[in-house]
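Record format v2
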Amino acid sequence: MSVSLDRVRELDRHDPLAGFKRRFTLPEGVLYLDGNSLGAQPLAAREAVAATLDQWRDDLIGGWNQGWFDAPERLGNRLAPVIGAREGEVVVSDNITLNLFKLLGYILERRGDGDGGAVLSEGGNFPTDGYIAQGFCRLGGVEHRVLPEGAELADHLDGVAVVVLSQVNYRTGRLRDMAATTRRVHEAGAEVIWDLAHSAGALPVDLAGSGARYAVGCTYKYLNGGPGAPGFLYVHRDHQDGGWQPLSGWHGHAAPFAFDADYAPAGDITRFRTGTHSALAYSALEASLSMWGDVDMAALREKSLALSALFRDCLADLFEAHGIEDITPPAAERGSQVSLVDADNGYAIVQALISRGVIGDYREPGLMRFGFTPLYLSFEDVWRAAMHFREVVESGEYREPRFHVRGAVT
Amino acid sequence: MSVSLDRVRELDRHDPLAGFKRRFTLPEGVLYLDGNSLGAQPLAAREAVAATLDQWRDDLIGGWNQGWFDAPERLGNRLAPVIGAREGEVVVSDNITLNLFKLLGYILERRGDGDGGAVLSEGGNFPTDGYIAQGFCRLGGVEHRVLPEGAELADHLDGVAVVVLSQVNYRTGRLRDMAATTRRVHEAGAEVIWDLAHSAGALPVDLAGSGARYAVGCTYKYLNGGPGAPGFLYVHRDHQDGGWQPLSGWHGHAAPFAFDADYAPAGDITRFRTGTHSALAYSALEASLSMWGDVDMAALREKSLALSALFRDCLADLFEAHGIEDITPPAAERGSQVSLVDADNGYAIVQALISRGVIGDYREPGLMRFGFTPLYLSFEDVWRAAMHFREVVESGEYREPRFHVRGAVT
């Protein structure tokens, strides 16, 4: 190792975020570099779920009057500062797929395009964003186009009404410039929906400051809301003044308990609610979100980049020697992950690491992803993970047949 | 009281379902007649959620390979026998609102109507069923019609492609004849989507035997899955052979982990999945569903009708004397609730009952609803609830000003 253990312990001693690790429970012997898929468990989430179980048992239907019903907007307001949004601009609801559908319908109705501009999806983005755009366009009679991976967005905006972009690409970890891109899309007369799945909680996001009007995201990755925790949806406050969203359920009605015969959308962000949501899932997320008020987002970003840099510094010579391609973008364009490609051995290396308790993940073809979550990873954790990576590759243990059996879904 | 306590205790001693009460936890001093809104907590649900919290903590992302990912179809198969469906015909997913949207899109695409038959909603049905039909039709360019409350369905099927009907009406508790109605709709060349919110777990439902092709429902009422537990969706196995559903997310893809650029719907019931679901919510429901294998549905129906009959028998003279209208349908057309109307005092009576620990609910205008859940209500419970009802009305205590302050949302 080119970096000594003493040095990384020194980094940990000066880490202003070090105290957050104690707010999570991680299993013994595990070095978890997959918080970009599912965040670790905050102690507070566990306690909150137990309290909600008590509430279901004791208050029964009364629980809906005691915090459950308003949770989508309350949690939205709690999440807002983490992503640069303001009170009343965020609602926690359903999942990314469904929230994209709602925004596509809302934006197109609001624009009232007679000529029906196209919906543009991003090639190489997480597939569900394109899938739901296809489903929306098929039903709504709207043209669907795909931006080829790596193509210049500005060259593909003619005739486009809405484009869906990820702020951080799930494979490469590349970070888009939200402000510049938003400006360019608006100048072309189109709207952009930002997918924050790999940026919310991973780095400072400045929705309002970037001029972004629409966004969606999930809460089970860097926000640690639990497996399958609900998604969120953001609409800039100047763009909440009209229009239906097509998934018009009773919780999004202007007066949900009036039981009117006709749908009338709520005048605010709650129009994006659909039906009854899980009080258990929301309580875990609410507790997880509660810690973000204490997080200095600039310190988070600094540590995130320092952790990914440490991992790469420890292994640069190994990558070179073993033909592992490091496609991690430079710091200014990096999310909070390191992405490595080894088409022949990537899968086996990740499996061998997992058997040592070092959890990363693998995506075809050849992509090894390692996520760096500053709230519960120490510099020493990352240093040790890099040490395991080196041993796995140098020893050739990944060549053992058991590491080559493919069957896992994640 | 016209029925003696000895008599109801005798009924409890001979109740074949009496043992199920021990599998639930209900708070001391509460008589809960609102299981038609939110079911009580099964002990098993609590334990299952704790186990899922352990799994999140210990297995982290690995949990998705250990039962979380397949939960929508596994729970669907567990639920199937309770509603007369078969393996592979039910998936647990999202909520009723969203599941209706999926089925409307799927059915219309499958029919390929050039002339675009209308969607018919039922006046007086739970509002979200009409709201989402409106949203669907607005986006899809489909005509939306409403069946006037009380009108003869057969007179309103001309030019209709799909009708959405509740098997049991949420206000009156009236039970439709599913087999006869389905036949009539099919004869008119239309399809029917059944909403089972107030029938699944409340009485024997025979989807396949009734010739029903499509249904949706929720699991937080008579199925006791917890607050906001996920919804379900049924498609008859002979009608799963094609077509998109418009909420085309990655979990409904034929190969969700291939990360293909284009959407291709799964060939089976899993096409109705959208995105990532809450493992916590699903685990509570799975445990709750586990008890249904032991339930004799004929005995459940018999007890349900006996409980509602007991409540009415105890109070018939009181209703007469105080001008309370009992709109509960006759047994053969009854769900599992008693519905009473008192436009002047209904709200205050329900509030006074709640303050005594007798939980029913109130819907404008004037409707008092009392749900009878055979798994955790004894005959003595119902008898005592009726005694409280009598005392509240005869004493006039509901006239106290504190019972007239309206503010609650449920």
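The first helix of chain A runs from residue 5 to 13.
Chain A has a mean pLDDT of 96.
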